[in-house]
């Protein structure tokens, strides 16, 4: 087993709030420069740029595929999958429940689907930065049915964090972990919630320079969702390296 450094929350040009420099090829290049071992592109309510990520796959870095879902309660949640196929199935499920509100690029920003060479394939017309008609429990069950990870995003934030939105952390929902970002006091959050859920750190990068500024190290056999799940549970010798 070995230690893998992971940043599992990165936005690309598909997110209207993402910088136009955030093409998949640029993200991968920057992640390699930052010595990351695993990354995930997690755009708002869409995984359409996962195909470009798949086409960039090599032996230097591993990819998870997925999105940052915005549930009906306006909470953000990471949905992460090993395979492009499972991410695409979840994407189609989400897109059907995404309200048909058109994006206004001049207000929200462009939503660009690109290939591995940065050629524009599509300008997403539906606004991605909105709530989908899926509740938290339904989302977690669907993610798990596709062998994915369900992780509430940046729980420390006042905007779109699950605690701020609901006023509490639901106890009957099987989250795989909770995510915090650099705005939080890690030890304080870990102490408060570690007996309920493991805590991970990601960058939530919207700009190239932010990639890898916050990350989690996992001691695992291989860079797969199943291995990450074992590390989150602390079983079979796998673990989160909390001193990273």
From TrEMBL:
One Pfam family per UniProt: PHP
Domain Polymerase/histidinol phosphatase N-terminal: 6-73
Protein name, as recorded: PHP domain-containing protein
Species lineage: Bacteria, Candidatus Macinerneyibacteriota, Candidatus Mcinerneyibacteria, Candidatus Mcinerneyibacteriales, Candidatus Mcinerneyibacteriaceae
InterPro entries to which the protein is assigned, alphabetical: PHP_dom, PHP_domain, Pol/His_phosphatase_N, Pol/histidinol_Pase-like
CDD domains xref list: PHP_HisPPase (cd07432)
GO molecular function per UniProt: 5'-3' DNA exonuclease activity; 5'-3' RNA exonuclease activity
Organism, as annotated: Candidatus Mcinerneyibacterium aminivorans
